[in-house]
Amino acid sequence: MTAPFLHLPPTDRVLSSRTGWTRAHWEATADRLLDALVPYATPGFAQYRLPGRASWSGVVSDGLEGYARSFLMASCRIAGARGEVDPELIERYARGLATGTDPASDEAWPRLTDCSQQMVEAASIAVGLHETRPWIWDRLDTKVQERVVDWFSGFVGGRTWDNNWRLFQVVSEQFLASVGAPYSRSDIESGLDRIEDWYVGDGWYTDGDGRNFDYYIGWAMHLYPLLWSRMAGPEEDGGRTEVYRQRLSRFLEDYPQFFGSDGAPVHQGRSLTYRFAALAPVWMGALADCTPLAPGLTRRLASGTLRHFVERGAPDERGLLTLGWYDTFLPSTQPYSGPASPYWASKGFLGLLLPADHPVWTQRELPLPIEESDQYTALPAPGWLLHGTRHDGIVRLVNHGSDHNPPAAADDAPQAGEEDPHYARLGYSTATAPESAPHAMARTVDNHLALLAPDGTPSRRRRIHPLRCEGNIASSWYAAELPGDERAYRIETTSVLHGPWEIRVHRVEAPEGVLLREGGHAVAHGERPFASSGPGWALARTADGLTSAVVALHGWDTETGAAAGGPPSAGETAAAGGTSADGETAEPRETAHGSGVARDVQSNAYGPHSAIPYLRGSRHPGGRSVHVSLIALSRDTVHPQALRTSVGVRAVGADAVVLTFLDGTTVEV
To answer: How confident is the model at residue 592 (pLDDT cuts 50, 70, 90)?
Structure first.
């Protein structure tokens, strides 16, 4: 249920039959979030120093972050109400501007220097000042305006990181231009020109060079160019605005597919602590009048997502957004995230800039696509398949294209780069998160096919090489490296979606004697998940009925249950034989192949107890092999033994298999 301390108005099931939320709910939530920050403000309101882990930029930068990001939310609230808000809200942020830009103040903001965190925060302040100009900027003392301009001037001719940061410089210098201050047209044009290098089609950008696909595409790459155009106006946009509108419109055609029926976004990528900032492109589509989404669908999507987080602890009982997903969970954050970083969620309130009589607020809610039918969406640009099932409302993302690593020198280059669990996994969803604590990452079980070295070290899926993405099929390969072995081994995976299931077909090159292991989705809960396994299958189920299962269909040599080889890896439960009452193996055997459930604690953003079903094959004979498995994530009851007979697998030579489903469909991989 919605947290009572938010003091929300009654739900309206006539206007909003799906969520019950109206504009009044959004305003009340914004007010609570902003009021909750006041106890943490410095005396001059230039900084908000929130409790929590500091970022690598230090306490002063973190305090500025608290001001800037919350000011973005406040600006939406002020401008959307045409200034008819509590006067103290306007006064707080106006006073903070005067204090923060005063070099003699103890609360003075750090100067803008090349690639400094202040650049990020300055962009939020610039947007906020533009949107609230009649109520804040125009009423500032001339000396304060001059100090603000002087602070922003650190951008002019400065250097930013070569990714979405280029756009922070663009909007900040455009603000300078809008108030008649010195700025560099070259900085603005070069920043806007640079993002053209990253546009990959179908509404998708990559965030900088490489295959960097995540929510930054919506809340940065699409957002800031159109915020810039709101500042620049049609006289200065050089025709760019229409291009940005067309691209955002195309992006939004598929974007609702990323949200489950409960409002949850797919849990993938970095900076997930921004939470409902994922709504930024949805609102910007309406603001720029370029959305393909009906007004009632826009509000249904947005209200459903905001309500989803509010009902699950974000904000918390203090009214604060913490570093995590629902509650505090630091492994899902990055070192640059400070205690106020989550307030980039302010971007999720851009809809308040729309007037109260806009159709988005007045038309009746419409259902999400997943509420009407099962959904299958291929996104070739990022290399993703989206798969939503109406009966349980879960959306799954099958990843064959985003790895967040620098571009390779050549297509066949070895791994290089790092493995990030929020990019490297084969699958993500709206109901699960990857195992992201350091000790869990060392094992890399969930949604990964690994070669296991003799000491248990798994190969890493660092660089992803896309091969195909169309219809309900996608494929890619990665170079598997093992300690002490100079060779990299090619592991090629094709995912086939059918009904509610994902079938994975792996073509594996491996040295003689290594083990092969594949994990399904990690499920997590406040209570310890149930686990069960048997020859050729494993299953984990949470107390609220979310089930993850992995089933061997071909090539895993699990039918005989013969025992041989070394012990299971630490934290795993081998289950070539029977299971105990709670699903654990009564006496773990030293098996070279079989199935089991890996457990962990405090490693998953969805709950303190997590469990991952997995398969492990017999020792590899060396050379090339083919392995086929079925991956299930469902709120239905799952019967793995029955699923083993639901897909026929026939090998065709050494390099292909034919899958035959019960409805007669056949797919050759």
So the answer is: very low
Contact between 70 and 55 (Cβ < 8 Å):
no
In the block, tokens 């004979």 appear at 621
Distance, in Å, from the CA atom of 249 to the CA atom of 228, rounded to the nearest integer, reads: 17
pTM of the model as a whole = 0.94
pLDDT band at 4 (very low <50, low <70, confident <90, very high): low
Q: Give dist(CA 63, CA 40) in Å, integer.
A: 9
Give the confidence band of 577 by pLDDT, cuts at 50, 70, 90: very low
Q: What mean pLDDT do residues 6-32 have?
A: 96
Helix (H, G, I), strand (E, B) or coil at 250: helix
Q: What is the pLDDT of residues 89-120, one digit of tens each?
A: 999 999 999 999 999 999 999 999 999 999 99
| CA–CA dist 480, 462 (Å, integer) | 9
- Alpha-carbon distance of 643 to 222, in angstroms, equals 42
Short-list 570, 575, 512, CA closest to 539 = 575
Range name among 163-177, 195-209, 231-245 with the lowest pLDDT average: 231-245
Q: Specify the 3-state DSSP secondary structure of 255.
A: helix
Please check whether residue 328 is in contact with residue 605, taking contact to mean a CB–CB distance below 8 angstroms.
Answer: no
Torsion of CA 266, 268, 274, 277, to 10 degrees: -50
CB 462 within 8 A of CB 417: yes
Q: Which of 166, 82, 66 is nearest to 125 (CA)?
A: 66
Residue 235: its pLDDT value, please? 84
Neighbour tally for 625: CB within 10 Å = 16
pLDDT at 576 over 70: no
The predicted model gives 18-31 an average pLDDT of 98
d(CA 518, CA 304): 34
Percent of the chain predicted with pLDDT > 70: 93
CA distances from 170 to 174, 277, 285 (A): 6, 20, 20
d(CA 537, CA 615): 7
Q: Would you say residue 562 has pLDDT above 50?
A: no
Q: Please enumerate in sequence order all residues whose Cβ is within 8 A of that of 407, keeping only pairs 6 or more positions apart, or say none.
A: 209, 210, 211
Q: What is the rounded (10 degree) CA torsion for 254, 260, 262, 263?
A: -40
550 phi/psi in degrees, rounded to 5: -135, 135
- Between the alpha carbon of residue 242 and those of residues 173, 289, 419, the distances in Å are 21, 11, 38
In one letter, which amino acid is 92?
R
CA pseudo-torsion sign 300, 302, 307, 309: positive
Q: How far is CA 235 from CA 127, 231, 232, 239, 608, in A?
A: 19, 11, 7, 9, 54
> E strands along 227-360, which residues?
none
Return d(Cα 307, Cα 304) in angstroms, integer: 5
Question: How far is 571 from 597, CA to CA, in rounded Å?
Answer: 9
Query: Within 215-268, where are the H helices?
Result: 216, 223-232, 240-254
Residue 414 has pLDDT above 70, yes or no: no
What DSSP string runs through 263-279?
Answer: SPBP--SS-GGGGGGGG
Please state, in angstroms and rounded to a whole number, the distance separating the CA atoms of residues 547 and 531: 10
Could you tell me the end-to-end alpha-carbon distance of the chain, in angstroms, rounded to an integer? 46
Residues in Cβ contact with 566 at an 8 Å cutoff, skipping those fewer than 6 apart: 454, 515, 590, 592
Half-sphere exposure of 220 (CA within 13 A, CB side): 25
pLDDT band at 575, cuts 50/70/90?
A: very low
Residue 620 to residue 233: CA distance in whole angstroms: 64
